[in-house]
Amino acid sequence: MESYRELRDRQQKEFNELPLxxxxxxxxxxxxxxxxxxxxxxxxxxxxxxxxGGFIQKKDHKxxxxxxxxxxxxxxxxxxxxxxxxxxLYQMFKYELDNHEYGYTGExxxxxxxxxxxxxxxxxxxxxxxxxxxxxxxxxEREGC
Length: 145
Hints:
With 145 residues, the protein is mainly alpha-helical. It has two domains: 1-81, no CATH class; 83-145. The chain has helices at residues 4-16, 26-35, 61-81, 88-99, 102-105, 109-115, 119-123, 126-143, and strands at 20-22, 47-50, 54-57. Strands 1-3-2 form a three-stranded antiparallel beta sheet, with helices on one face. A hairpin with a 3-residue loop joins strand 2 (47-50) and strand 3 (54-57). The radius of gyration is 19 Å and the shape is elongated. Pfam families: DUF7659.
């Protein structure tokens, strides 16, 4: 079983390898289209816009969704496999709490947002609450809070 960090890093690498383009100006859009061998005025019907200023060619759209769906399924399976909150879920919360400077801010919201979790979902899962409590306690103790 992969650790949270291993899963996250592998999925990020796979996502980075997707044939996506990003453009935040007309010049960048023209360059992106040229890189794809497309005309920026005539070939608009061959691309889709995705969030964050991104674009993908229609021919790659199915693969894009297959990768995202697989990533979501892998993450959910890894979370579900942690039956007591001391494995994957603990690693997940510890990594993301550190990444979002919980030891400095004491705020959980950014971490929950990053993980796509709501307070309601968290409260409904004793295992997740246990993992969050263990990770946040460890960080507070490390930081002397």
